[in-house]
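Predict the assembly for these three chains.
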Amino acid sequence: MAGDRKPLGLFRNLNAKIAALPMIATVLVVFIGCTLWTVVYSFTSSRSLPMLNFVGIDQYTRLFKSSRWMVSVENIAIYGCLSLVFSIVVGFILAVFMDQKIRFENTFRTIFLYPFALSFIVTGLVWQWILNPLGIEKVVRDLGFESFNLPLLTDRSLVIYAIVIAGLWQGTGLVMALMLAGLRNIDEEIWKAARVDGIPTWKTYVFVIIPMMRPVFVTTLVLIATGIVKLYDLVVAMTNGGPGISSEVPAKYVYDFMFAWANLGQGLAASTVMLTTVLIILIPWAMLEFGGRKGRAG
Amino acid sequence: MRYGLIAALSASVAFAGVSLAGAADLEVTHWWTSGGEAAAAKVLAEEFDKLGGDKWVDGAIAGSGSTARPIIVSRILGGNPMGATQLNHGRQAEELVQAGLMTDLTELAEKEGWANFIRPKSLLDSCTFEDKIYCAPVNIHSWEWMWTNPDAFKEAGVEPPKNWEEFVAAAPKLKEKGITPLATGDGWQVNGIFTVLTAALGGKDLYLKVNKDKDGEAARGPEMKKVIQALADARSMADPGYVGRSWNEATNMVMTGKAGGQIMGDWAQGEFSTAGKVAGKDYDCLPGLGDHALLDTGGDAFYFPKNSNPEVTKAQMKLASMLVSKQTQVAFNLAKGSLPVRGDIDMASANACMKKGIEILNNPENIIPSTDQLRAPDTQGQIEGLAAEFFSNPDMSVEDMQERFAEIVESAY
Amino acid sequence: MAEATAIQTRSHAHTEPWGAKPKRMFAPSTIMVYGVLIVAALYYLLPLYVMVMTSLKGMPEIRLGNIFAPPVEVTFEPWVKAWSQACTGLYCEGIRTGFWNSVKITFPSVIASILIASVNGYALSNWKFRGSEVFFTILLFGAFIPYQVMLYPLVIITRELGIFGTLTGVVVIHTIFGMPILTLLFRNYFASLPPELFKAARVDGAGFWRIFFQIMLPMSLPIFVVAIILQVTGIWNDFLFGVIFAGTPNFPMTVQLNNIVNSVQGVKEYNVNMAATILTGAVPLLIYFLSGRYFVRGIAAGAVKG
């Protein structure tokens, strides 16, 4: 393979370098260049247009004093924790049930997974319709429970849970599919051994299978966690941040300040904070996954 | 073969060229998407197409200004500008103008003598930057109105209110009848209510102090507290369904008697007239909420981003000239329910509410600048966030709101 | 994420459930398993059901009836209206303009991103050069950077290139952001092919491109299918890039859907909104139902994109 070719100069293996050019450009310009640009300009007082008038950490001070940002952070934390816990627990349980030699496995899988094919905008609009006062609330009231209230979209302390419900509806199927693949990967001998020893099924799952599936869990965790930070479309379609500011999220804060409220510096500071958060999640995981295996090249 | 094709093509171009010489498609972005607004935009499109040659390509962006503005601004910044765009005149376009991204209209404006007929003068002032004119105002919109449905009040057994205090007093009776006293939506609409209350209850002095002079002391004072207290009253008069409601849905609630009233700018009038409602009979209007009859002279203006195509630039000038022309001003503003920017045209066909507005504006003392003119978008955004938060959270105290409002006012630039 | 792909590829080999011991047909535990699965299935189906039912009702029925009831009087008018008459501003041409815009965005984006990523993945697996692994690692990290971080500089870059607010612009953006996951997909796939093939071709004197076109491509149909499914659904469902980079006349269907639903003239027409929503979801759903197993593999790999 290429390894036995001596890297003698720029023109060695030229075709491969040409083929990799888009990647190199993307890495250098977009992933590194743009990110650095954002970090640098987050220390300026840029308004609609980027300008290099540095103001130290002013933008960050203001960011963490802003109640809208704090609400956004709180919301993303609630959304994050709940969707992590629920999608993993529910996804795993569904996968276990799917793994019981059931009939119609393909039908069930299709049903659990189809929401994932939909856009967040579609998901948001559907759940907005189901949860609005003409939806479930009206149905239950018509059944005779006149005082039934389901203010999921209108109550400022509940609205984030409405978004969690919609998010879970869309995402749990994927977790189920990943977990199911993980379960299918477990050696049958393990089950045989457990059966011979008379260990109850649930105990086998908790003490044997789950620990064996650690890589699947970790991967799923990272996938969900990094997806959470990007939460934007769903909120825009479902609540647009309302009532008031109660369902705002960081990604929307960034967008609004960059484009709507003409305070670029503030938006960039917020996005830098988002970046830092992702790195905090990502780096320990990367070190855990790749660090032990080989020393170089990450 | 290839030459033949080109020859055929150029022949057809030459043929069509008689009428098309120098024609351009002018993409115009705006956020006029409600019934009355769309009707008004149509007037402009038709008038423009009638001029011949150039064509109005409609680039409506749904949602409110706060949804559309980022799209518009990012396109101009991104160097792929539209031919013309609606913005609220004031500080929204300030930096775009500074950065030299807008076409200079001074020559046209001087030739046509805009300064002579555009009133109030402040409209043109907010289009002016370093003595050059960069936008064409098309209408005057004032926020300081309340629209009420007298029948809703009669049904609840109370007299239709003449001012904010009576409105507040009548609210419990409306609620008993299952009528929402105050119809509103979220976000900028709540911010609008807050601004209107500042002017109508606090008066011109207070309004200018907190919005123009960024006077933190006034923002902390007892007058302001009264205003915020009124916002708390408004909060208790809205229904929980206000979340996600568009302003014209709220207007519709008033029209159909599901709600008693709505605080909304005079563009709501367009909805009433599109629905065939008669001012003074089917609905009432209270400028300045019936307290301080002050009106701001914000409104919409068209900006013309700089363009490399000279045909487009020519078309831009044509549109700019058309927008302030007498004929367009009358037709457009009747459809939109706003007031014309010209003092020299006959608005005899205006309805009772519009006439009230014209009368108030005749006295310059009654005119206040709009918050779009006074506040940077950043400040506007912060205040909107604060007002929306306060409105959605019944546990947030008046004192808390006032302190945070004062902090924003002090840090404004 | 490397695991995710690997697992999917491996599991595909044996689809037999390993699970616990087989159960009798009507044992309580069997009933419980099916009970839970059916309840869960109902929860997942409910929104689709509500969408379809709502879109087939007239407005009066929606106002009076309940959202779960099937329509008393079936009407397809909302569908017609959503497709060809719903208004955003002056234009009342329905969501079909958005549909065609999405088609115009999706096709070139899918082709460009897959072309670049497949060649790139091939180079990374068979023709490593100094630094190629470093670039690849950063590329993978890039998949996790929130888009917001790169948004504004990308506006500037596309502006400087003169492609901001054009179809080309949004295609380039999709190609860039599709690169990490697609490259990973192709690199892992090519690396899993028997190395003897590659070595034999080298001995025969075949070069970079010839090996790619004559040996690698014919063997990699499945991974191309996965990549296409992944990209079509991902790009079709995109909102953020469409709204910023495509420009007003090129708004994709998702953006237009959000526009139509939010531009209310008079009262909200929930039936039209729901019909428009289904129409927007139809393309990825269709792909999903048609492609079955490939889709599962595709999204398992593509979940990185979030």
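The two ends of chain B are 66 Å apart (CA to CA). Chain B has two domains: 24-141+298-343, 145-296+366-411.
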